[in-house]
C-alpha cells in the first residue's frame, strides 16, 4: 500500500501543473484583465464587460490611448505612462511564460500573493470565506448521509413495494429541482418573502452573536444555516439514496446471504451483521469525495440568494474583476485538496474493507 500511495503522491505534481497550464493558457485568450478593469472603473463603466460593449459601439474610436496604444479598450485620454505603470504593478509587463513559471515557483513555496483589488493575501481571503462554504458543504453532506442511508436500506429491503415506488418518485422530483429555485421557494415561504418570517434572510450569524451564550450561539448559528443547507442538500438525496439501495440489493442476492438465511439467522441479523459492511463499502468510502464535491460544487447562487459571503462568490467576483492572484491561487489550493482527497478516498476503501489491495489490482 505504501508504494501505491507514493505513486499517487508523485502523480499530484504533474497533474496539478497540467491543471494550471491549461487554465493559465485559457486566461491569456480571454478579453480583458486587471488593467482593463481599472480603466473601466475610471471611465465610469462599472466593469470590464461594459467597457467592451461601449468600445465596440464607437467603431473602434475608444481603442486608442493617449500614447497611441490600442491594447486597452476605453483607455482614451489616459497617459501611456500610467498604463505602463499599471502593467508593472500587476506584473503584466513580462512575457506570459515568465509570469507562469514565476507564479508556479511562488506557489511551490506556498506564496500565493495578494489580491489585486482587496489588498489582502489570498490565503487570508480564502480563510475568511471558508466558514460559509464549510458550513454548507459539511452540513449538507452529513444530512444527506443521515437521511439517504436509512432510506436506501429500507428501499432495498422493500424493493418493488409501494413505499419503494413513491419514495423513488419523490427523490427523483427533488433531484430535478434546481437548488437555487428551491432556495427562492424557501425564502418566499419562510424568510418573510410573502408568508412567514421564521428564518433570517441573510448572513451566517446575528449582529449580537458575540454577546450570546454558548447555547444561544449554537441556536443562532443553526437558525441562520437552516434554509441554505436545506436548499443545497435537496438534490443530494437522490444519488446517495439510489446508490445505497442498489449496493444493498447487489449484496442481498449473493450466495453468502442465502447461506446465512439457511442457517436460521434472523432477517435483521443477516442485514446488519453480514450485508451492511459489504454494501456500505462504496457509500462510506466515498464520503471524502462527496464532501469535496459539495464543498467545491458550489453554491454561488445559494450564497447570493441568502447573502452569504463564501468561496463561491469569491471565485465569481475574482473572475469578473480579473483578480489573477485570487483566481489562480484558489485554483491551485483547491486542485491540490481535490487530488489529496482522491487518495484519502482510496485509503477509506482499505480502512472499511482491508481485503482491498490497490497494489495487487494494479499488478
UniProtKB/TrEMBL annotation:
Listed PANTHER family: INNER MEMBRANE ABC TRANSPORTER, INNER MEMBRANE ABC TRANSPORTER PERMEASE PROTEIN YEJB
Main location: membrane
Family the entry assigns: Belongs to the binding-protein-dependent transport system permease family.
GO cellular component, one term: plasma membrane
Bilayer disposition of the protein: Multi-pass membrane protein
Organism superkingdom: Bacteria
Subcellular localization(s) per the UniProt record: Cell inner membrane; Cell membrane
Residue span(s) of domain ABC transmembrane type-1: 130-349
TM annotation in the entry: 9-30, 132-153, 165-191, 221-244, 279-306, 326-352
Organism ancestry: Bacteria, Pseudomonadati, Pseudomonadota, Alphaproteobacteria, Rhodobacterales
InterPro entries: MetI-like, MetI-like_sf
UniProt KW Electron transport keyword: no
UniProt-listed GO biological process terms: microcin transport; transmembrane transport
UniProt entry keywords in alphabetical sequence: Cell inner membrane, Cell membrane, Membrane, Transmembrane, Transmembrane helix, Transport
Official protein name in the record: Microcin ABC transporter permease
Amino acid at each position: 500500500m505504501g508504494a501505491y500511495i507514493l505513486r499517487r503522491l508523485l502523480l499530484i505534481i504533474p497533474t496539478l501543473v497540467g491543471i494550471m497550464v491549461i487554465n493559465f493558457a485559457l486566461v491569456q485568450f480571454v478579453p480583458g484583465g486587471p488593467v482593463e478593469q481599472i480603466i473601466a472603473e475610471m471611465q465610469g463603466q462599472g466593469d470590464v464587460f461594459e467597457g467592451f460593449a461601449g468600445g465596440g459601439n464607437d467603431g473602434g474610436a475608444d481603442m486608442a490611448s493617449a500614447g497611441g496604444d490600442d491594447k486597452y479598450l476605453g483607455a482614451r485620454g489616459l497617459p501611456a505612462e500610467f498604463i505602463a505603470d499599471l502593467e508593472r504593478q500587476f506584473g503584466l509587463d513580462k512575457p506570459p511564460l515568465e509570469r507562469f513559471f514565476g507564479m508556479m515557483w511562488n506557489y511551490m513555496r506556498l506564496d500565493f500573493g495578494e489580491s489585486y483589488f482587496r489588498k489582502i493575501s489570498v490565503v487570508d481571503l480564502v480563510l475568511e470565506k471558508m466558514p460559509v462554504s464549510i458550513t454548507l458543504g459539511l452540513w449538507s453532506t452529513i444530512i444527506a448521509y443521515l437521511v439517504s442511508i436509512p432510506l436506501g436500506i429500507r428501499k432495498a429491503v422493500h424493493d418493488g413495494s409501494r413505499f419503494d415506488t413513491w419514495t423513488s418518485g419523490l427523490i427523483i422530483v427533488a433531484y430535478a429541482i434546481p437548488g437555487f429555485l428551491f432556495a427562492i421557494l424557501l425564502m418566499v415561504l419562510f424568510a418573510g418573502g410573502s408568508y412567514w418570517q421564521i428564518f433570517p434572510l441573510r448572513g451566517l450569524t446575528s449582529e449580537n452573536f458575540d454577546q450570546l451564550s454558548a447555547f444561544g450561539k449554537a441556536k443562532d448559528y443553526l437558525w441562520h444555516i437552516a434554509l441554505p443547507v436545506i436548499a443545497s442538500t435537496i438534490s443530494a438525496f437522490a444519488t446517495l439514496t439510489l446508490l445505497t439501495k442498489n449496493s444493498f440489493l447487489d449484496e442481498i442476492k449473493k450466495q453468502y446471504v442465502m447461506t446465512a438465511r439457511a442457517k436460521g439467522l434472523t432477517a435483521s441479523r443477516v442485514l446488519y451483521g453480514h450485508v451492511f459492511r459489504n454494501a456500505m463499502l462504496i457509500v462510506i468510502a466515498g464520503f471524502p469525495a462527496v464532501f469535496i464535491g459539495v464543498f467545491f460544487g458550489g453554491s454561488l447562487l445559494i450564497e447570493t440568494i441568502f447573502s452569504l459571503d463564501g468561496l463561491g462568490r469569491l471565485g465569481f467576483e475574482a473572475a469578473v474583476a480579473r483578480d489573477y492572484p485570487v483566481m489562480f491561487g484558489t485554483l491551485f489550493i483547491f486542485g491540490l485538496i481535490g487530488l489529496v482527497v482522491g487518495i484519502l478516498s482510496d485509503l477509506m476503501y482499505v480502512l472499511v474493507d482491508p481485503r482491498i489491495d490497490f497494489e495487487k489490482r494494479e499488478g
